[in-house]
């Protein structure tokens, strides 16, 4: 049985997947207070914040959703704190 040993190439800027996850977590920690203060954060602002790194962008969105934020959708491309 063959087992996938993981991606053989690096991501943007030579980072591994684990590096990208760590970068995304650190960006996530910085963004949470900003989003709560402003009330919303646009996807276009997030793209600039992650320096146009697609993997980190997607991971940050994933972690924000995990942490209770509404990350929107293509019709409403903004991140807002969830209201219960």
How would you concisely characterize the structure shown here?
With 84 residues, the chain is mainly alpha-helical. The chain is 50% helix and 10% strand. A hairpin with a 7-residue loop joins strand 2 (69-70) and strand 3.
Helix content bin: 40-55%
Beta percentage is 5-15%
Strand/helix succession: HEHHEE
Unreliable spans are 1-5
Major β-sheet profile: 3 strands, antiparallel
Overall mean pLDDT stands at: 87
Taking the alpha carbons of the first and last residues, their distance comes to: 47 Å
Please, how many helices? 3
Radius of gyration: 14 Å
Quick one: how many beta strands?
3
The outline comes out as globular
Question: What structural category characterises the helix and strand content?
Answer: mainly alpha
Q: Strands of the biggest beta sheet: in what spatial order? A: 1-3-2
Task: Write a structural description.
It is a single chain. The chain starts with 16 loop residues before the first helix and ends with a strand. It is globular and about 40 Å long. Strands 1-3-2 form a three-stranded antiparallel β-sheet. A hairpin with a 7-residue loop joins strand 2 and strand 3. Helix 1 crosses helix 3. It is built from three helices and three strands. The N terminus is likely disordered. By secondary structure, it is mainly alpha-helical.
């Amino acid at each position: 049985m063959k087992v996938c040993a993981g991606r053989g190439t690096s991501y943007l800027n030579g980072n591994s997947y684990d590096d990208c996850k760590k970068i995304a977590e650190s960006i996530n920690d910085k963004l949470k207070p900003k989003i709560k203060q402003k009330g919303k954060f646009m996807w276009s602002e997030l793209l600039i914040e992650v320096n146009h790194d697609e993997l980190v962008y997607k991971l940050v969105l994933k972690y924000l959703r995990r942490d209770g934020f509404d990350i929107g959708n293509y019709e409403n491309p903004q991140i807002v704190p969830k209201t219960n």
